Amino acid sequence: MKGFVRSNLDFSLCGLNCALCPMRLGAYCPGCGGGAGNQSCSIAKCSLEHNRIEYCFLCTEYPCSKYKGAEEYDSFITHQNQLKDLRRAQEIGMEAYNEELLRKRGILDLLLSEYNDGRRKTFFCVAVNLLSLEGLESTINNLLESTSKETLTVKQKSECAVELLKELASDQNIIIKLRKKPSGD
After folding, report:
1. Is residue 185 part of a domain?
2. Rounded to whole angstroms, how far apart are CA atoms 107 and 125?
3. Which end of the chain is more exposed for a tag (fewer CB within 10 A), N or C?
């Protein structure tokens, strides 16, 4: 959107973790307020109309009607924790939230560089986005330990990573899957 610029391109105005998005990782999206390729967005327009607030939770009208059903369906990034992540950022402050997000991004980078068999990018992005940081860090330690002892193919390492992440998801009562809006809605 013309005239809409933000300093933090890792966490969107509306609460999406852009640092964990497959579109951003693939350089198809610069992140909200990131310049060329930045798409028109009603929430960005709203920010411009409300003194260019950096995050929706800073607005006196938050949460507003724009968030009705926001977490119901996903796009190319999961929206399931959108409001929860905004609350977390508001509670602990943006500096601390960004530190947590960078730790999650480090986990995602490791998964994509060492455990991706070419078919797991979206799965890993959704998993890291939805699962707790503490659980992810513990799971990654177990994964590194279990895959470092043997010479495994990338496919075998990928299967091991997926299995451990699915176990963590089950423990946290989470389904690692994008929820698409049914066609016709």
Report:
1. no
2. 10
3. C
Query: Would you tell me how many other CB atoms lie within 10 Å of the CB of residue 74?
Result: 18
Q: Are residues 86 and 8 in the same domain?
A: yes
Cβ pair 161, 154 in contact under 8 A: no
Whether residue 38 is predicted with pLDDT greater than 90 in this model: the reply is no
Render pLDDT for 128-174 as a digit per residue (tens, 0 to 9): 999 999 999 999 999 999 888 778 999 999 999 999 999 999 999 99
Contact 115, 157 (CB under 8 A): yes
pLDDT tier, 94 (very low <50, low <70, confident <90, very high otherwise): very high
Q: Are residues 45 and 130 in the same domain?
A: no
For residues 81 and 102, membership in a common domain is answered with no
Residues of the domain holding 137: 93-176
- 8-40 burial string, b = 16+ CB within 10 Å, else e? bbbbbbbbbbbbbbbbbbeeebbbbbbeeebee
Q: Report how far apart, in Å, the C-alpha atoms of 130 and of each of 166, 169, 177, 178 are.
A: 12, 8, 10, 11
